[in-house]
Amino acid sequence: MGTGVSPGSRRPRRLRGPSSAPPPATTGSPWRTAGPTAGTCCGTTDDVGFLKDLTAHLVRTWRADPDRVYLIGISNGGDMSFRAAVEGERLFAAIGVVSGGYSGPRTAPETYVPRRPVSVITFIGGQDRYADVFTEGVRTWQRRLRCTPATGAPPAGAPRVTRTGPVRGAAASGCCRGCSA
Q1: Which pLDDT band, with edges at 50, 70 and 90, does 8 fall under?
Q2: Containing H/E element for 77?
Q3: d(CA 122, CA 170)
C-alpha cells in the first residue's frame, strides 16, 4: 500500500485503491483508549482529535474519498478504533480490530455508540488474556446498535475460506441502518 505519490512529485494526485496513512511512531506513549487501560495510562493527548485532523488532511490534501475512510487497529490501537468510531463523528465508514475491544469506563453509558453506521470486523485470539472482555464488548456493540445474527450461506461469488484450526465466530447484520458487526 502506498501514498499515491511517486518520488519527486510535487502535487498529490487523487488516491486510487487502498492506501494507508499510519500515524508517526510514538515515543512510548500509547493511545488513550476506551479499553482495559482507559483512564490508567497514556497522558492527556487528544488522540481522537489527532485522527480527525489526520483524516481531514488526507481528504483535503490527498483527495481521499471521505465516505471510504477506514480505521484499523491492533491491541490498544483496536481499542482506539472503537473509540474513534464512536467519538469521531461520522469520520469512519468501518473499523478493523485485532485483539482490541469496546470496553472500559468510556463504554459504560448505553448512549456510547456511533451517530451513524460504522461496520466492524474484529479478530480475537482465543488465547488472548482479554478475549472474554473483547467478546463481551462486541456483544455489547451489537446489542446497542440492534444488530441481528447473520444466517445462511455466504453470498454467491464470495471467496472460499479454509480454516486450519478451531475458529469461533459470529456475524450480525441489520445494525444501525446498514452497518454490520
Answers
A1: very low
A2: helix 76-87
A3: 10
Sign of the four-CA dihedral 149, 153, 157, 160: positive
Burial of 81 (0-12, 13-18, 19+ CB in 10 A): buried
Residue 80 has a pLDDT of 92
Instruction: Give every CB contact of residue 173 below 8 A, 6+ residues apart in sequence.
Output: 147, 148, 150, 180
The answer to whether the beta carbons of residues 118 and 179 sit under 8 Å apart is: yes
Pairing state between β 94-98 and 70-74: parallel
**Amino acid letter, residue 17:** G
Phi then psi for residue 122, to 5 deg, are: -135, 145
Q: Which long-range contacts (CB under 8 A, 24 or more apart) does 133-138 make?
A: 133/35, 133/36, 133/101, 133/103, 134/99, 134/100, 134/101, 134/102, 134/103, 136/103, 137/82, 137/101, 137/102, 137/103, 137/107, 138/101, 138/102, 138/170, 138/181
- Assess contact for 123 and 162: CB atoms under 8 A: no
Rounded CA separation 10/6 (Å):
9
pLDDT of residue 147: 86
